[in-house]
């Protein structure tokens, strides 16, 4: 029984890590900030949930499980909120999406703002 | 064995985040990279504890999750409002005055 | 096929990967002229080195590095950038040649010298086989707490740690003297609220700040049994207060934790630490010799079951002494970090007002 | 190759140290210099912690002897190795350098703050944090018999 649980837990960890890696590929390859934050935050919460659930299965019922639950609670509390605040701040400071309805931003206008600065 | 593979995968994801943080191009991308890097660090610490047989050190993972949040908020606030002191709710009034 | 050393294992593999990451990040910090990018990269550098510390069996140090490196120093650096500017001047490459040559030369010498050091993980090296082993063997007998790092920090090297605490206190006073004890003029009320921008953030911050503070106390009192202690707990507590200031504004935070209270707590922490040492002297022991913390008459009255083990009743003084001085460290570190933050963030308000006057 | 792997930590530490030193030497910006100093300081910590590592060891937080955890840790190692270097059947890393570096990190951030505060005051006095500009400005100030400030 314990063996089955630990294999299942290992499998969940692998799936969660695979999600994280996919998210990282998204962050690396997607064209602009908003698509990147989408890739990062969704896979972070999903991947973290799967990995921590898998570790819970491996650990069995003990103090370690409780700590894993706490890690999960804190990750679920902080990651989406931070992503929300970040996207909110970027959008309200005039950081325009590159794709979608905001395509109208002229390229020469974009070039005027120097690299690495986002201040309006 | 599965956990070791998971550790390797997380290290790869962290390396990708470092690349994004170095490349930028905007500071918001960098903050995003740090935040996501921190979450992956939390996962790595949890998994590594099991790989090395001392899972009791999960406290460090908890503290990472919390401090990562504080840092992200500080960076966000710095880039958006150029201040560490003003309250967040005052920003809209300022925009209305400026614009 | 490369020949691997006999001690090659998952530990060494992760160690090398993380060190390579550190080197890449450090290289990027050297290259970038944008100070803000440098600060963000330095945050990543701290995170990587903290994971590395866990892999190297130093969870206590990892704890400290995580909170201090990624949390406090990033915020302090941001505060400094706010008061100066975000770009470094471009340096002419000809002026880089001499420092580069010097660094390569010194680095070569260091690597050459390091070749004589024992291999990584050598259990028979003099440091690990004699000094370290002596502490490991003596701690259960002398101190009786599981976390040997805390035992060495607070008891064997308690005098040293008192000095470190005093240095932190002095640094906090230095920053406060240079940047002011918080804003020198009274803070103007925040602008009127038209729309609420960060509702999600403000609500979850209200939820998180008490949790972080509670976690700081857990780290403080769990420090004897697992990773943690006064230094880590102090910085976590300061992080909770700083998060409050970031979300709700410095004015609100200064109403909750006035700068006067922070200064008082910092001083009281050092006094408490030194006072425990003096109490030990009064009872006939050496300075910070916790075995003499209680007079023998009181010591005899303490029942053995309080510690769960009747044979270890004589460790009561050690337990209590370590708890007290860790409390002193907590107060000093937390209050000093808050004072430093007030100095930088309060200066911002001050400087902005001065500029507006001109 | 084996030698390089077992001494890789020291090579990396030396490189990081030199990266920090290079920033301090080459950059005229006071804030960048402080970041360089911080990297330099961290690398010292890395060296100490590297020296404290014991192969197959675990963190210096005592494991209950003869508990399941202790048996699990011991089962990963050669019994002869555990008998020689272990304490009650568990091999620990050296706690002493950990103590030194733990306090050094907190003291490090406090001194970093002092350095940055000095940089802020320099900026307020001279309007710049670049060492070259400050030098020029202070020379101008000392030659001009301006009003007493």
Could you give the count of β-strands of chain D? Answer: 0
Overall average pLDDT of chain D: 84
Distance between the termini of chain C: 71 Å
Helix and strand content put the structural class of chain C at mainly alpha
Q: Which percent bin holds the helix content of chain D? A: over 70%
CATH T-level fold name of the domain at 2-53 and 94-143 in chain D: Helix Hairpins
- Assigned CATH architecture of the domain at 2-53 and 94-143 in chain D: Orthogonal Bundle
What structural category arises from helix and sheet content of chain D?
Answer: mainly alpha
Helix content of chain C: over 70%
Output the number of helix runs of chain C: 13
Major beta-sheet overview of chain D: none
| Count of individual domains of chain C | 2
The main β sheet of chain C shows up as:
none
- In whole angstroms, the N-to-C terminal distance of chain D is 64 Å
Number of helices of chain D: 7
Strand content of chain D: under 5%
Q: What would CATH call the class of the domain at 2-53 and 94-143 in chain D?
A: Mainly Alpha
Mean pLDDT of chain C: 83
Explain what the structure shows.
The complex is a heterotetramer of chains A (about 120), B (about 100), C (about 350) and D (about 150). Helices cover about 75% and strands about 0% of the residues of chain A. Chain A starts with a helix and ends in an 8-residue tail after the last helix. The C terminus of chain A is likely disordered. Chain B has four helices and no strands. The longest helix of chain B is centred in the middle third of the chain and has 25 residues. Chain C is mainly α and about 350 residues long. Chain C folds into two domains: about 120 residues, NADH-ubiquinone/plastoquinone oxidoreductase chain 6, subunit NuoJ (Four Helix Bundle (Hemerythrin (Met), subunit A)); about 210 residues, no CATH class. Chain C has 13 helices and no strands. In chain C, about 50% of the residues are buried. The mean pLDDT of chain C is about 85. With about 150 residues, chain D is mainly α. Chain D is elongated and about 80 Å long. The interface between B and D is small, with 5 and 7 residues.
């Amino acid at each position: 029984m314990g063996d089955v649980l630990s294999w299942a837990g290992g499998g969940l960890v692998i799936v969660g890590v695979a999600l994280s890696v996919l998210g990282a590929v998204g962050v690396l390859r997607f064209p602009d900030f908003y698509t990147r934050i989408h890739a990062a935050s969704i896979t972070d919460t999903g991947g973290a949930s799967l990995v921590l659930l898998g570790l819970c299965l491996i650990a069995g019922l003990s103090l370690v499980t409780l700590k894993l639950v706490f890690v999960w609670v804190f990750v679920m509390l902080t990651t989406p909120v931070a992503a929300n605040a970040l996207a909110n701040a970027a959008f309200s400071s005039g950081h325009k999406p590159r794709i979608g309805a905001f395509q109208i931003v002229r390229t020469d206008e974009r070039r005027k703002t120097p690299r690495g600065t986002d201040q309006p | 064995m599965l956990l070791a593979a998971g550790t390797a995968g997380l290290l790869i994801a962290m390396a990708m985040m470092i690349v994004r943080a170095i490349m930028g191009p905007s500071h918001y991308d960098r903050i995003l990279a740090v935040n996501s890097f921190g979450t992956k660090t939390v996962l790595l610490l949890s998994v590594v504890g099991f790989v090395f047989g001392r899972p009791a050190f999960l406290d460090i993972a908890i503290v990472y999750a919390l401090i990562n949040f504080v840092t992200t908020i500080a960076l966000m606030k710095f880039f958006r409002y150029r201040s560490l002191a003003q309250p967040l709710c005052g920003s809209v009034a300022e925009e209305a005055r400026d614009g | 096929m490369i020949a691997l050393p006999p001690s090659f294992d998952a530990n060494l593999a992760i160690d090398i990967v993380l060190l390579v990451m550190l080197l890449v990040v450090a290289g990027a910090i050297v290259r970038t002229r944008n100070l803000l990018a440098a600060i963000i990269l330095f945050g990543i550098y701290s995170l990587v080195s903290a994971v590395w510390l866990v892999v190297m069996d130093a969870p206590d140090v990892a704890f400290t590095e995580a909170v201090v490196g990624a949390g406090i120093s990033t915020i302090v650096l941001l505060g400094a950038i706010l008061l100066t500017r975000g770009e470094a001047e471009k340096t002419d490459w000809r002026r880089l040649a001499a420092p580069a040559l010097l660094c390569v030369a010194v680095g070569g010498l260091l690597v050459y010298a390091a070749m004589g050091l024992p291999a990584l993980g050598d259990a028979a090296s003099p440091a690990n086989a004699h000094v370290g082993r002596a502490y490991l063997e003596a701690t259960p007998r002398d101190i009786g707490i599981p976390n040997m790092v805390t035992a060495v920090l607070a008891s064997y090297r308690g005098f040293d740690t008192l000095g470190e605490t005093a240095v932190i206190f002095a640094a906090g006073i230095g920053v406060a003297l240079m940047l002011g004890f918080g804003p020198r003029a009274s803070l103007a009320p925040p602008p009127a609220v038209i729309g609420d921008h960060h509702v999600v953030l403000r609500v979850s911050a209200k939820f998180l700040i008490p949790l972080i503070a509670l976690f700081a106390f857990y780290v403080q009192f769990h420090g004897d049994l697992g990773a943690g202690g006064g230094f880590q707990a102090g910085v976590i507590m300061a992080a909770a207060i700083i998060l409050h200031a970031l979300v709700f504004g410095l004015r609100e935070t200064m109403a909750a934790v006035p700068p006067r209270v922070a200064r008082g707590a910092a001083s009281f922490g050092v006094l408490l630490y030194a006072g425990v040492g003096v109490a030990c002297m009064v009872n006939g022991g050496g300075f910070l010799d916790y075995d003499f913390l209680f007079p023998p008459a009181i010591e005899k009255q303490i029942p053995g079951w309080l510690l769960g083990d009747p044979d270890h009743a004589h460790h009561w003084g050690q337990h209590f002494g370590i708890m007290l001085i860790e409390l002193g460290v907590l107060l000093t570190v937390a209050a000093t970090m808050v004072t430093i933050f007030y100095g930088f963030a309060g200066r911002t308000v001050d400087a902005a007002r001065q500029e507006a006057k001109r | 190759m084996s030698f390089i792997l077992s001494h890789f930590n020291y090579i990396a530490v030396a490189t990081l140290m030199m990266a920090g030193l290079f920033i301090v030497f080459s950059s005229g910006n006071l804030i960048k210099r402080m970041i360089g100093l911080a990297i330099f300081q961290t690398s010292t910590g890395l060296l100490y912690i590297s020296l404290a590592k014991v192969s197959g060891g675990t963190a210096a937080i005592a494991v209950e002897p003869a508990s399941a955890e202790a048996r699990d840790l011991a089962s990963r190692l050669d019994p002869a190795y555990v008998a020689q270097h272990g304490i009650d059947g568990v091999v620990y890393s050296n706690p002493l350098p950990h103590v030194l570096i733990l306090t050094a990190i907190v003291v490090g951030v406090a001194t970093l703050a002092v350095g940055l505060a000095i940089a802020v005051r320099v900026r307020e006095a001279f309007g710049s944090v670049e060492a070259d500009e400050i030098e020029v400005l202070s020379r101008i100030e000392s030659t001009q018999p301006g009003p007493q400030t």
